[in-house]
Amino acid sequence: MKHIIRIAIFLVTAFSFAQHTGSVSGNILDNESNNSPLLYAKILIKETGAEVLSDEKGLFEFENLKDGNYTLVSSFVGYKTKVLKVQVESGKAIKVKMSLGASSISLEELMLTFASADKENTSPSLNE
Predict the structure, then answer these.
(1) For each successive 10 residues of the chain (128 residues), what is the average pLDDT?
(2) How many Cα atoms within 13 Å fall on the side-chain side of residue 27?
(3) What pTM value is reported for the model?
(4) 3-state secondary structure of 96
(5) Which of 69, 65, 82 has the alpha carbon at shortest distance from 21?
(6) 102 neighbors 73 (Cβ within 8 angstroms)
């Protein structure tokens, strides 16, 4: 009888501890390519500093998150950064879908950047 009581207490305790966290998972899609998966995009949780990369299917997951509000920041080189707020609750799995579009840079910005870099890299021997 003592063994049954111990097992019951253990199971109740294990289930009560397991319910204090939640998870966030989702897809990162590429707006520029008909919403195909965006491979190896970075997803960051601003409040904890935890970050993951999306896999070959554009999937990512954060597990064991405490209850609360979190800010997901997704980024990829050459794409606009996207910010999404989520609320995590105990025992729940939040699923999100984010799509990133290419960032645009004007020709004027490019020329200004190139011109200022050119002035800094000019050596005295080239000026003569």
Answers:
(1) 64 59 94 92 96 96 94 94 94 93 70 57 52
(2) 9
(3) 0.67
(4) strand
(5) 65
(6) no
